[in-house]
Amino acid sequence: MNFPADTLIALAFLVPVAAFAVAELLAVRKRDLDKPSRMNAAADPEPMIVVDVRAAAANDADMRDAA
Fold first, then answer.
1. How far apart are CA 16 and CA 4, in angstroms?
2. Whole-number Å distance between alpha carbons of 26 and 34
3. 4-28 burial by CB neighbour count: b if 16+ within 10 A, else e?
4. 23 domain-assigned
5. pLDDT tens-digit readout, 21-47
């Protein structure tokens, strides 16, 4: 097979990037299988902490007081 030079240059960069990406995905998947899920309540007895960070919306009276 006779490929043009620009195709070979592109493949020289893309093939290692794709190989490392697949290897990383497989490693992450293996790490995920080794430990229990954090979303499973039975596997994680510590309750999740939820913090409400919403602020009250400003209304016209607040704007008049501020001015």
1. 19
2. 12
3. eeeeeeeeeeeeeeeeeeeeeeeee
4. yes
5. 999 888 877 766 656 555 555 555 666
Q: CA-CA distance, 32 to 42, in Å (whole number)?
A: 17
For the record, the structure tokens of 42 come out as: 């039975």
Q: For the chain, what is the domain count?
A: 1
Residues spanned by the domain of 4: 1-33
- pTM score > 0.85 for this model? no
Q: Rounded distance, CA 35 to CA 2, Å?
A: 48
Q: What does the DSSP 8-state code read for residue 51?
A: -
Compute the distance between CA of residue 38 and CA of residue 34 in angstroms, rounded to an integer: 12
Q: Is residue 41 part of a domain?
A: no
Q: Is there a domain that residue 55 lies in?
A: no
Query: If you search the block for the tokens 């960069």, which residue do you land on?
Result: 13
How is residue 64 written in tokens? 């008049």
